[in-house]
Amino acid sequence: MFDGFYGRLRQQTGDRWLHYIHHPFVRQLADGTLPASAFRRYLIQDYLFLIHFARAYALLVSKFQTLPEMRAAIRSLNAIVDELPLHVRYCAQWGLTGKAMAAETEAPETLNYTRYVLDIGHAGDALDLLTALMPCVAGYAEIGVGLLNDTQTVLTGNPYAPWIENYGAPLYLSGVQASLTLFENLAAQRGGASRFEALAGIFATATRLETAFWQMGLDAACATPEAR
């Protein structure tokens, strides 16, 4: 996962990347101490985020000119669209309905992140857009696998264990690998090496916005303290 052009971008991001994948929100998910109010805030905004993420992949499809590339992007789009009902069913366990989440106002962090990705997509080419998407796609896989392999992660009795297991599951990881393969091929075809500095900037900004998304959840818990 850390090889190739993606690996170069990840390494270039340095401490910013480490802060993203080891954020206190993630660590509290791992040990089960995350306040429920923080997780509910995250779930609501993640639902709204996924809608715009699907829009970004629909835009990505339009950026391609070959059927294999279009099919690869469509598979990712379909995976997100199919994930939304599953997300709603999971959120029901936390007292959240799809109708209620859809009626919520997007947090500034959600707006900043999703509109940044869409702006990159509209202004740039497929490689620019996929670069903005990869910190989420591959980052969640790294987090999921990392937590599952961490001896300090608590799975028994942890209400967040299903979330952790989902992002470390073979089905999710296979989808991530398909996205990485598409990304590596695209970087080779679209002059990724010669555009590295600009693409690294996009990748770093998306990583920063991902980190802010975690912090949004923690900030909600601080604003409305609630026992888990």
List the main descriptive attributes of the protein structure presented here:
228 residues; mainly alpha; globular
Structural class: mainly alpha
Name of the CATH architecture: Up-down Bundle
CATH class value: Mainly Alpha
| Number of DSSP-assigned strands | 0
Mind telling me the CATH superfamily name? Answer: Heme oxygenase-like
Describe the model:
This protein has one domain (4-221): Heme oxygenase-like (Heme Oxygenase, Chain A, Up-down Bundle), CATH 1.20.910.10. Helix content is 79%, strand content 0%. It has 11 helices and no strands. The protein has helices spanning 4-13, 15-21, 24-31, 36-63, 67-92, 98-103, 108-123, 126-148, 161-167, 170-189, 196-223. Helix 4 (36-63) packs antiparallel against helix 8 (126-148), helix 7 (108-123) packs antiparallel against helix 11 and helix 8 (126-148) crosses helix 11 (196-223). It is globular. The model has no long low-confidence stretch (mean pLDDT 93).
